[in-house]
Task: structure prediction
Amino acid sequence: MAEIVIVPEAACARAVSEADAFTAVEAVFAAMARGEARNFPVIREALGHADALYGFKSGFDRAGLALGVKSGGFWPHNAEIGLTNHQSTIFLFDPDTGQLRALVGGNYLTAVRTAAAAAVSVAHLARPDAQVLGMIGAGHQAAFQLSAVLRQRKFTRVVAWNRDPAKLDRLAAVAEKAGVGFEAAEPQAVCAAADVIVTITSSFAPLLKDGWVRPGTHLACMGTDTAGKQEVAAGIVGAASVFTDEVAQSVTIGEAQHAVKAGQLSAEAIIPLGAVINGAHPGRQSGDEITLFDGTGVGLQDLAVAQVAMRVAAEQGLAQTVSL
Ligand code: NAD
Result:
């Protein structure tokens, strides 16, 4: 008889902390760069029902023994009935037998693993003396991003922009809780002030323009995860040292897609962040360099945090177990 652990969505935030997500994502990026963990091709389809987009992200991490799939997508009318538009569930399988081991709610975990990716990039690539954090975007992911990144340096101030300024309130609340100053500013002023900038919008046109980003800045570009989306001018990407979670995604659906298409950046020049974590690449090499992390989001990140959720929730009695 096989035991299956069920971790409901509501238990995930109690089971997986920001720090747990950071450790899990850093480890799986490192395993990817060593060739020990592999993402499988992503499926993403319009259902032709409820205007929904549905898909799978899957992979196998031989180092962490995580095998599974995140299944879900975007249901744009959910908000009208009080549900989150993004819905996903993570399935973990026993890599030795293929038997189902766990069903884990994927909504919180998606946000915390995406924030962890930005935080890992800041930990490894931002200048050690970075003090001002810039935020571009204030949607669902942004508060998670801000909270996770604030832990990585001794930031004293957050400078933020959002298309709808009213939503900046939730970022201000995160900054206040962390004891750092907060102010709203236009994107050009964010660039002029910030040492680290996180972009986390659904924009299809550059919000940060050529010439705005100061030497020495670290950019974590987290919003562009689809062909056509863009947050940063291709010229900025072309002039930066570019790091990513997955090069194949960076050049097709990530922020780098536009610079690659324009001939301003070659795929060969893009460095897996895992190579920096492993010490195979030095990462930032001067205080003047602009480093850019193109965070496209990979299934292995989901599996990494779901493994933690499965283990901790079972240990702490937050999970249900069924025998099949
Ligand atoms: P959301 O719908 O809650 O928020 C969207 C944000 O984008 C808001 O700040 C909104 O003001 C802004 N925005 C939308 N269109 C814009 C435009 N044309 N110009 C400027 N700003 C615009 O979404 P979310 O859940 O916070 O996700 C934000 C983005 O991050 C999405 O594009 C999503 O696909 C992406 N995402 C990436 C990953 C990853 O792993 N890289 C993971 C999750 C989400």
User: Anything to note?
Assistant: The longest strand covers residues 53-61. The first helix runs from residue 9 to 15. The chain has eleven helices and 18 strands. The radius of gyration is 19 Å.
